[in-house]
Specification:
Length: 293
């Protein structure tokens, strides 16, 4: 076989493999109606997701998830396939830009943007052109009622940020809250902006609230988009187990190198990102237990 022919065949095989890989990937974005509800939806764009609620009087949307990508345009088009009612609100889950950037198309349609007071302060301080400053703020709690649907915006304290809202639909017994109650997933990298040990108190508060299903800001393993209280209890148990293991290592003067090498949490080894992020999570807790930071 000539060299050119071998190269040509190799190119064909590569093209076929690439096509097969693409065929297995989920579409870039998708909208799913939450089973058992009349009007609660999840909009997913790549690996981020937001909840939205459709009522006869208008739509309550959440995070635009549009950092450096046209997610908000797709998000609005998806809403428009379901209803022509106006988009009345966009609620930011917390201050992190990968979730809240890109809200301008919503603002242009007349939506009122709402966030926790601390999120607004952060957004104003950082002045990014692609992050729209909220029109209204929440302190401890606010209830939005629209077209027969009630949505509570609740601040339970510091956790993955100092501006996280728990959005609760009391009738549907669903909460939407982002980045700190992951589904069988080890927390991102070194848990930036996470408050220790406050996050454990926040988790206990949320677990004690009335709800059955949790919509997080990212799908879990196998694309699972909705969790339960078991996921929240597991997230708390992970942090408690990790904290206890690192505390012991810190007491034995093993922070950081020995602790990072020796600490294993086999109970969670099947979670997404276990090998990748556990060492960075250990570093975060070493800083807390051995340096007090
Ligand atoms: Zn975040």
């Amino acid at each position: 076989m000539s060299r050119a022919r071998v190269a040509g065949m190799a190119a064909l095989v590569l093209a076929a493999l690439t096509a097969a890989a693409h065929a297995q990937e989920p579409p870039q974005f998708a909208t799913t109606k939450v089973e058992g509800t009349e009007n609660v939806y999840i909009f997913r764009y790549v690996r981020h997701q937001s909840m939205f609620i459709v009522t006869p009087q208008g739509v309550i949307a959440t995070d635009p998830i549009g950092l450096r990508r046209p997610a908000a345009k797709a998000y609005i088009e998806e809403i428009r396939k379901i209803t022509k009612a106006p988009i009345k609100y966009v609620i930011y889950s917390h201050s992190h830009f990968d979730h809240i950037a890109g809200g301008q198309p919503f603002k242009d349609l007349g939506a009122v943007l709402v966030a926790h007071r601390n999120a607004k302060a952060r957004i104003v301080a950082l002045q990014r052109p692609d992050v729209v400053v909220p029109d209204q703020v929440v302190d401890r709690k606010r209830t939005i009622t629209l077209g027969g649907t009630t949505l509570e915006l609740i601040y339970v304290g510091k956790n993955h940020s100092d501006s996280t809202l728990v959005m609760r639909l009391p009738k549907e017994r669903i909460i939407f809250t982002v980045d700190w109650i992951p589904l069988q997933t080890v927390p991102f990298r070194g848990m930036a902006d996470t408050y220790l040990p406050d996050i454990e108190d926040s988790l206990k508060t949320v677990i004690a609230m009335e709800w059955d299903r949790l919509i997080p800001g990212h799908p879990g393993p196998d694309g699972r988009q909705i969790g339960t209280k078991e996921d929240a209890r597991a997230a708390l148990a992970y942090l408690q187990d990790l904290s206890a293991a690192v505390k012991k290592a810190a007491d034995d003067h093993k922070c950081l190198a020995d602790a990072t090498r020796e600490i294993k949490l086999p109970k969670y080894e099947n979670w997404t990102n276990y090998s990748q992020y556990l060492p960075m999570n250990i570093e975060r807790f070493c800083d807390f237990h051995s340096l007090g930071i």
